[in-house]
Design goal:
The longest helix has 23 residues, at 4-26. This protein starts with a helix and ends in a 10-residue tail after the last strand. The protein is α/β, with parallel strands linked by helices and 508 residues long. The chain is globular, with a radius of gyration of 25 Å. It has two domains: 61-310; 315-498, Rossmann fold (3-Layer(aba) Sandwich). Helix 7 links the parallel strand 4 (166-172) and strand 5 (194-200). The protein is built from 18 helices and 13 strands. Helix 12 crosses helix 17 (454-465). The structure holds 2-acetamido-2-deoxy-beta-D-glucopyranose. 2-acetamido-2-deoxy-beta-D-glucopyranose binds at residues 56-57, 145, 147-148. Keywords: Signal. Residues 248-269 are annotated as: Disordered.
């Protein structure tokens, strides 16, 4: 032991010299980006054997389950970023309940139905996630074959909607959260050939008034035997409690619905208690551990620290993002090393956000480009203060990602958006982006959809948003908020969100 010590110190010194020389080498470029976890590959992940029956999936998921094993399951039912947050909540529920999560494919809600569904592992690095969470992760595609000749002919149903229709009992949170007579959020059940009977989660476990965000740990409790039994019993007073809440709401415009059968019958008319072996929830996006709402983005956020930060992009998406950014920044082939070059990402969400502006005119409500410019400037300074080198506009370029259309919408092209736009205003906005020397990725010009499919323009953009050393986003956009957290966590980067709503909203 004693004589090993000098060797130890020699090793320490060698390692230090090596690290310093690596750093000084990298500091010739804008930043030591390749030291960050965005660019790091999945360390040889520990393979967790999937707790399912071996062999190819049959047309019934129930065939694949191991009799002594417990699972947990939820469905996508919103825009894609919110569906990602919904899955993260499911993963956290998996930890809290010691059940194996079954990951649903994502629905093409904002992309166009003919994009069909896409498996979780096409978007996220499921092996790395499983290794970092220390638990096996099953995908729905592993346990049920929903693909058949008939459905595969139509791009809308390709890969899904087939297989045997299986009845099952699930919990539904949405009728309780909405408390307005709404039903379950079960958009995905047809695509997975499930016929679900729902038991409403009992009232009284909200952590944020009025009734929107729900206590996640209460949901976990329903996945344990005694909690499940209590929940089923309490659910019997759902109709009565709903009527009480609705009549006590001031200005309630919704008619109190006729009492419904509990559990809600499925399409076949069956009433089924929530499954014991596969705890199943309709949509768990509006939940939290201690306050709901912005909890995801708080520095102490349990869901971020336990789960969200481990949801890295699938290797294909990363390599496409690296290729698109390298092309756009004009990095010559001999300077490319398979890592993401440093840049600042800007996400200006405009098109659909403008719908909340009226009666205020669009241009007085959405943040002006100058607000983003100012924050990019501050980001450069913050990066320099953090020790990043060459953060000036010459070396560190900006890539704008925005849903602002390249051509101003007209009544012929978009009846919803057209009335909000002055003639030529979208073209003028992009021109001012160009005038600043900023870049963007033009998927239309680059034929991204025909090359990679409809999902990939959005996925590549979301990946690029997370890949800069700086990020400037749009306040109140979940897509921006998640990109900012990723930038800080994975790239050791910095950034901020531009506020909007009035001309001086972002004054600071
Ligand atoms: C699913 O079923 C279809 C139709 O029987 C078959 O062609 C396909 O190979 C199956 N897929 C898997 C993954 O077993």
């Amino acid at each position: 032991m004693y004589y090993r010590r000098p060797l130890f110190w020699v090793l320490v010194i060698v390692v230090c010299i090596f690290t310093l020389s690596t750093l000084s080498h990298l500091n010739n470029g804008p930043s030591p980006l390749s030291l960050t976890s965005w660019n790091s590959q999945s360390k040889a992940p520990a393979a967790y054997p999937l707790p399912i029956r071996p062999g190819p999936p049959t047309t019934r998921f129930k065939d694949a389950l191991l009799p002594d094993h417990k699972y947990i399951f939820t469905f996508p039912n919103a825009g894609w970023t919110n569906d990602v947050m919904n899955v993260a909540t499911l993963l956290l529920l998996g930890i809290l309940t010691r059940r194996t999560p079954i990951l649903s494919p994502f629905h093409p809600s904002h992309i166009g139905k003919d994009a069909s569904l896409i498996p979780f592992s096409k978007i996220f690095d499921i092996e790395r996630l499983s290794a970092e969470l220390h638990m096996p992760l099953v995908e729905f595609e592993d346990i049920k074959n929903t693909s058949d000749y008939q459905h595969d002919l139509d791009p809308v149903t390709r890969g899904y909607y087939g297989g045997e229709t299986e009845s099952m009992g699930c919990w539904t949170l949405w009728p309780t959260q909405a408390a307005n007579g709404a039903g379950a959020r079960s958009l995905a059940q047809d695509s997975l050939s499930l016929d679900l009977s729902f038991t409403p989660i009992p009232f009284g476990h909200e952590i944020e008034k009025p009734y929107l965000h729900w206590n996640l740990h209460y949901l976990a409790e329903l996945a344990f035997p005694a909690g499940r039994k209590d929940g089923i019993k309490q659910a019997q007073s759902f109709n009565e409690n709903l009527a009480k809440i609705m009549s006590s709401k001031p200005n309630n415009k919704d008619a109190i619905p006729e009492p419904r059968k509990i559990p809600f019958p499925n399409k076949k008319g069956e009433q089924i208690d929530p499954d014991e072996q596969v705890a199943c929830f309709d949509f768990v996006y509006f939940t939290g551990m201690y306050k709901g709402g912005t909890e995801w983005w708080d520095e102490s956020s349990p869901i971020w620290h336990l789960v969200g930060r481990h949801m890295h992009w699938a290797p294909l998406i990363k390599s496409l993002a690296i290729e698109y950014v390298s092309d756009r920044l004009g990095i010559p082939a001999n300077k490319r090393d398979g890592t993401m070059p440093p840049f600042i990402a800007v996400h200006a969400r405009r098109a659909d956000f403008a719908r909340v502006c009226p009666p205020r005119p669009r241009e007085e409500c959405l943040a002006p480009l100058s607000a983003y410019t100012r924050r990019v400037e501050e980001t450069r300074q913050a990066l320099a203060a953090k020790g990043f080198q060459n953060t000036g506009p010459e070396d560190l370029k900006v890539i704008m990602l925005s849903d602002e259309p390249k051509v101003t919408p007209t009544m012929e092209t978009d009846r919803l958006l057209a009335p909000l736009y002055a003639p030529g205003s979208a073209e003028a906005w992009w021109k001012s982006v160009a005038d600043q020397g900023w870049f963007w990725i033009d998927h239309e010009e680059l034929n991204s959809v025909s090359k990679h499919g409809k999902w990939y323009t959005m996925l590549i953009d979301a990946c690029i948003q997370s890949a800069g050393i700086g990020f400037v986003g749009t306040d109140r956009s979940t897509m921006s908020s998640i990109a900012l957290r990723r930038t800080e966590e994975w790239n050791n980067g910095v950034g901020s969100l531009v506020r909007w709503g009035r001309p001086d909203s972002d004054a600071h």
